[in-house]
Amino acid sequence: MRPIRPGDRGPAVTEIRTVLAGLDLLSPSAPDVDQFDAHTERAVRAFQQSRGLSVDGRVGAETWRALDAARWRLGARTLYHAVPEPLTGEDVRSLQERLLEMGYDVGRADAIYGVRTSRSVAQFQREVGLTPDGTCGPHTTNALRRLGRKVVGGRPQWLRECDAIRQSGPTLVGRTVVVDAGHGGTDPGAVVPDGALRWTEADLVHDLASRLEGRLAAVGVRVQLTRGPSLREYLPDDDRAQLANSLGADVFISLHLDRHTNPAAEGVATYHYGTDNGVTSATGERLAGLVQREIVARTGLRDCRTHAKAWDLLRLTRMPAVRVEVGYLTSPSDRARLVDPRFRDRVVEAIVAAVQRMYYPVERDVPTGSIDVSELRAVVAAGTVVD
Fold it and tell me: Residue 79 — φ and ψ, nearest 5°?
């Protein structure tokens, strides 16, 4: 869909304003018009900030879906596992977060009422003496509100995810990693002229993805790219996430370059799934921290740190997933590095080292920048993998 921007008018703007008013983000004193005015833009920005979305003041497809989901509050409707289009909404997310607090394994709080959520509801119902039908109606909602947390001493999903990583062992051999080169096709991403040259984000991140594919394959990883060097059409983020899920990937890495109107903006940032109320992907958060530290240490890029976001690409993937903004293409200093193939090699080696460190037990972790990726390749080539 075409983003709805400040200055636009029509029924869609009226609907946006209605949802924002229901969330107490649009003041009752704001003019009641069907125009996307300054009041509406501020409210949209506040909504995007609270939901972990990109804060641009426009209502694109992702913000529109989040607004549509925000209409619902837990208890306002009966929730059930619908096929083929599952129910989605903030009420589903609230239910999932409540079940996670009580120790039930719903997986990621992705606001989608899928099989895993339905099974957890049925398990809860069975334990409190309700009919275990996996449907969350008034009786189940009331029972959830009456009961306190079951798990104490740590976030239950954090404990569950960290234990799964520990149980899988430290080797990378045989794991599946999906590498996503951002943009592509009809969406070139950032485009920056540089003298007689013209650099595009889509081309540079595809080169990074191809180099990362080679490095990971050399250490025994099965690698799948989400796109080739040229697509006829842009592949939406939810399709990229679905591809990773269908492959049963162990790790998902999305590569992007940032841009800004201020050419002084520079540096690398890494994003993982998380919301403003503390719900996060534990392993995604750890992987993001490792990727960020390794890239900064090995390249000297400015450290713009890690951040939690609820973008579809991170929310819908069922494995540790990160999005890496490897510098600003609009920054002359960052761009000079990014167009150097040797620099891109250092970036991908940093990511390989970070993925390897994620599978090391915390007590056996190594200092940032100390892993020699060539030694990992030599071990695999020799056919000796040390547990």
Answer: -105, 140
Using DSSP's 3-state secondary structure scheme, residue 87 falls into coil
What angle separates helix 11-22 from helix 61-69, to the nearest 10 degrees? 50
Q: What is the pLDDT of residue 277?
A: 63
Taking residues 153-157, what's their average pLDDT?
A: 58
31 or 52, which is more confident: 52
Residue 29 to residue 39: CA distance in whole angstroms: 10
pTM for the predicted model, two decimal places? 0.86
Helix or strand (DSSP H, E) at 241 = helix 237-246
Cα separation values, 281 from 16, 292, 300, Å = 29, 16, 27
Residues facing residue 280 across a β-bridge? 274
- Which residue from 85, 100, 84 is spatially nearest to 151, judged by alpha carbons? 100
d(CA 70, CA 46) in angstroms, rounded, equals: 13
Neighbours of 24 (CB within 10 A): 10
- β-partners of residue 363 are none
For the chain, give the mean pLDDT. 91
In angstroms, the CA 242 to CA 64 distance is 20
- Sign of the four-CA dihedral 363, 366, 371, 375: negative
pLDDT band at 382 (very low <50, low <70, confident <90, very high): confident
The letter for the amino acid at 141 is T
CA distance 160 to 103: 10
CA distance 97 to 109: 6
* Spatial separation of the C-alpha atoms in residues 126 and 259, rounded to whole Å: 52
Q: Residues 157-169, buried b or exposed e (16+ Cβ, 10 A)?
A: bbebbbeebeeee
pLDDT in tens, 6-50: 999 999 999 999 999 999 999 877 776 789 999 999 999 999 998
Model confidence at 153, pLDDT cuts 50, 70, 90, reads very low
CA dist 110 to 7, 88, 100, 375, Å?
A: 32, 9, 12, 38
Nearest to 221 by CA among 315, 348, 342, 363: 348
Q: Can you spell out the DSSP letters for 165-218?
A: HHHH-S--TT-EEEEEE-SBTTB---EEEETTEEEEHHHHHHHHHHHHHHHHHH
